[in-house]
Specification:
Blueprint: H1 3-20, E1 25-26, E2 37-44, E3 47-55, E4 63-71, E5 87-88, E6 91-95, H2 101-104, E7 114-115, H3 122-134, H4 147-179
Antiparallel strand pairs: 1-2, 2-3, 3-4, 4-6, 4-7, 5-6
Helix pairs in contact: 1-4
């Protein structure tokens, strides 16, 4: 994601989280990858819930995703985002869209991200890169929207992500706490 857009996404996401999910506070407990943001709900002495805003680091792909995690300690960065039912070392880490798979799975096999720029499907990236390589050109993403156009898309995309955290993530956390 372009740097200016990433900053705008992080800033608006932070304001939206503070306004709508104040139980989550920015976490500084562990180094967060550059450009990303981590929020912590310190639910109990032995249980912490996390929301991890991850901006796409790939050039030309102005998008972000949200991961959720449950842990007795720090965010489980060392674990892969496996799924909401798969624990590793007492932690769970997964992407938010896993909680509403029925909504997107019939349409695509790819987990959705929130796009503020030109939406690029994984198959498109590969086919365009191969086509350009065959004729001796460097792979690139063409047709990116302007920064000004993308800035206008941030608010609705972040609003949707935070709404989905409220609708799917918070109930998941509450159910998880009952199991623990």
């Amino acid at each position: 994601m372009r740097a200016r857009l990433a900053k705008a996404v992080r800033d608006y996401f932070a304001r939206k989280m503070q306004a709508e999910l104040p139980q989550f506070v920015p976490s500084r407990s562990k180094p967060v990858p550059q450009g990303d943001s981590l929020y912590l709900w310190d639910f109990s002495r032995s249980l912490k819930f996390y929301v991890f805003l991850q901006v796409n680091q790939k050039p030309g792909q102005d998008s972000f995703t949200v991961e959720l995690a449950c842990s007795s300690g720090d965010f489980p960065f060392s674990h892969a985002a496996l799924g909401p039912t798969q624990q590793k070392d007492g932690s769970v880490r997964f992407r938010l869209p896993q909680l509403y798979r029925d909504e997107w799975r019939p349409k695509t096999g790819w987990e959705p991200w929130w796009w503020i720029g030109l939406r690029v499907e994984p198959g498109e990236i590969t086919s365009k890169a191969v086509a350009r390589a065959v004729v001796g050109k460097r792979p690139l993403i063409e047709g990116a929207v302007s920064i000004e156009q993308a800035l206008l898309r941030i608010e609705p995309q972040v609003n949707d992500a935070v709404d989905r955290i409220k609708r799917f993530g918070v109930p998941f956390f509450e159910q998880y706490a009952k199991r623990d």
